[in-house]
Design a protein that fits this description.
four-stranded antiparallel beta sheet, 6 helices, Alpha-Beta Plaits, two-stranded antiparallel sheet, alpha+beta, single chain, globular
């Protein structure tokens, strides 16, 4: 007897081949494999039935990778080099606590890059607002920072495909070296051109592109 399940006793050329034996209905053993559900359709001008598999998704499968860039207020070089590693760890922790999954966080003394996976129920604007609000309070509380620290109102956010996550991760990791030859305005302008966004890099840097 053929091990392949068939539709209502029909064995024809359209019968799907499934590489496992049917299991007992209601079996809850870990090794048990569920049998796919099929429906029978008739081809046009033919009495030969054709089986189609019914694909169902009981859970949402989402991959949303975001690369966010934001700068200090008025682009001032206000971040002491000594606190940058701790600041990046704080921002990564805030991302993880507010519906994201931090991959790397990096940057220089006047701006931050953050690459993270975003939960399907979280809006990027809400996550970025929370990151900037709480990280600015953390910076203001550091002994080396005199006065109240502020981030710029605007930010830039770019989608990243799964194949490019490692590329962006390496790019963020070499920010210090990168900005010895490239200014922030040139960097941001290159991203805006690549993603075909209308506007100028100076608009984003001045907080005019999006609410923070």
């Amino acid at each position: 007897m053929s091990p392949w399940p068939t539709a209502v006793g029909y064995r024809g050329p359209c019968t799907p081949r499934i590489p496992y034996e049917p299991t007992t209905v209601g079996c809850r053993r870990p090794c048990a494999l569920r049998i796919p559900t099929y429906r029978i359709n008739f081809r046009r001008n033919s009495k030969q039935p054709c089986l189609q598999r019914l694909t169902t998704m009981s859970h949402a499968q989402v991959f949303i990778a975001i690369h966010v860039i934001f700068a200090t207020k008025d682009r001032n070089v206000a971040l002491p080099t000594a606190i940058l590693p701790d600041l990046h760890r704080v921002i990564g922790k805030l991302i993880n606590e507010n519906g994201g999954q931090s991959i790397p966080v990096g940057g220089t003394r006047d701006h931050v890059h953050a690459l993270f996976l975003l939960d399907r129920m979280v809006r990027p604007v809400d996550l970025v607002r929370e990151i900037k609000h709480k990280s600015s309070r953390w910076i203001s509380g550091q002994p080396c920072c005199a006065g109240r620290f502020q981030w710029q109102n605007g930010y830039a956010a770019f989608s990243v495909s799964a194949s490019q996550v490692d590329v962006v991760k390496k790019y963020i990791g070499r920010q210090e070296t990168h900005h010895t030859v490239v200014t922030f305005d040139h960097e941001l302008g290159a991203f805006l051109n690549r993603y075909r966004l209308n506007g100028k890099s100076s608009d984003v840097a001045q907080g005019l592109a999006a609410p923070g």
